Amino acid sequence: MFKTSFHGGFAIPSQRRALCGLRTIAAMAAAAFFTLSGSAAFAQADYPSKPIRMIVSVGAGGATDAIARRLADRLSKSMNTPVYVENQPAASGTIAAQTVARATPDGYTILIGTNTTHAGNASFLKSIPYDPINDFEPISRLGIAALILSINNDVPAKTVPEFIAYAKANPGKMAFGSGTGSARLATEMLKAKTGIDILSVPYKSNVQALTDLRGGQIQILLGDIALMLPQIKSGAVKGLAVSSLKRSAAMPDVPTLQETGVPGYELVGFIAAFAPAKTPTAIVNRLNQEMVKVLRDKDFSDSLSAAGVDAAPTSPGELREWVISETKKWHDLARAARIQPE
């Protein structure tokens, strides 16, 4: 038998009373949902209504920072709201990435990250305070920065096949320098694919490695095009091939490593934009559309090429797949090279 209670002078079985309560709660929840949904929709339609904060994971003065500032300037005009750049370069970009990962997901805090924050850190550091995949909504890849295989002028080679032949004839007698994770992994990948035996010499920066490359203390450096191009043009070192699948717009006459007989070779730096996880899809898509429009502008893409970066816009989904793929690639290379996380 149902228990009864009295309500308004009428006896109501407890089951009917519970049903009435559930209907009331459901009605209140529905009203709240539509109120919140309406507010969210209004906020997205009104986006942007205040300045956008663009967090850059590297310091001022480099190619990534220069690109971020040019992009911010263009977005400020096209989106009719201030977009300002804030550099947070410490701790391999982990501070910048963490700042954005923990920010309110409303489209007003954006990360300009790199292969360091979204591929390398997961392999080079024992722990990082963010998940490079699940803590972010990808917006668009901005650019790809190829590396260029450069050698000291005393190495008797003018092409990649000649260099590989010389290295195989002189195992363990040449050394490569690396001041970044990408330079180290790119050379380890070259070693793995060609079977050459060359020694590793770590540096605090590729600038220091370049000094020793010019002086002959090391013979090989896979460095950023922005850094190496002036040295190659001046004849201070020789540039043999780039590390991307396609030739770089900054050096169209220089072949790719794949073209020169190293099949499947690709390891590049990249720059990309991310929003915090759970940022509304409509806002992410709006940011993607605005950024892709800027990246496809010839004047803007030419300015990137001058900095050694090729414009490479993507959809949000394509960027997510890229990050997943690159993270695995870097992890596999780091383990194969027996690089211990620090």
Structural class: alpha/beta
Gyration radius, in Å: 26 Å
The helix-strand sequence is EEHEHEHEHEEHEHEHEHEEHHEH
Determine the CATH superfamily of the largest domain.
Bordetella uptake gene, domain 1
Oligomer: single chain
> What is the domain total for the residues?
2
Largest sheet: 6 strands, mixed
DSSP helix fraction: 40-55%
Annotated CATH topology of the largest domain:
D-Maltodextrin-Binding Protein, domain 2
Q: Segments where pLDDT lies below 50 for 5+ residues?
A: 1-22, 33-40
Provide the fold topology.
Layout: E1 4-7, E2 10-13, H1 14-45, E3 52-56, H2 63-78, E4 83-87, H3 94-101, E5 109-114, H4 115-124, E6 136-145, E7 147-151, H5 160-169, E8 175-178, H6 181-194, E9 199-202, H7 206-215, E10 220-224, H8 225-234, E11 238-242, E12 269-276, H9 281-295, H10 298-306, E13 310-311, H11 316-336
Parallel strand pairs: 3-4, 3-5, 8-9, 8-10
Antiparallel strand pairs: 1-2, 5-12, 6-12, 6-13, 7-10, 7-11
Helix pairs in contact: 2-9, 4-11
